[in-house]
Design goal:
This protein has 168 residues and is an alpha+beta fold. The protein contains three helices and seven strands. It starts with 12 loop residues before the first strand and ends with a helix.
Amino acid sequence: MEWTGARYADKPTVEVRTWIDAPPERVWQLVGDIALMPAMSEELQSVQWLDGADGPAVGARFVGHSRHEALGEWSTTSHVIECEPERVLAWAVQDPAEPSALWRFRLRPENGGTELSERMQLGPGRSGLSFAIDRMPDKEQKIVFVRLREFERSIASTLEHIKRQAEA
């Protein structure tokens, strides 16, 4: 049986949504505070704003330190590429022109609360996943599929944490 699925060069994405019984202002307080993110993630261990930044704004940068059982430990610098309070926060990992990943939170008022989505795109720039693919090019689509499923579970968990805190 031949594996069919996305290749890294396809810039595969995963997106998860949830509805939160809280206004966008309250949800934004949580989404915009990157210091909260490590407590919501198995992989992300710590984050710090760089260059004197203390919150999200286009052009602001932060460093994230991550750990994964199969991929080891690494640090990346992310660049905020989109920031509209109470609406959207997006960042490019490593090189904004050729990111190893793009992440985006989107908030939308809905039914007296907020629909919150989180989306991530792999590539097109190289990442730790690229090295795994280099070692096993015949398994590229499976490697990408497995990693996207990991991100999907992680994003769902992050959104659940944000939902619980916003509704508390």
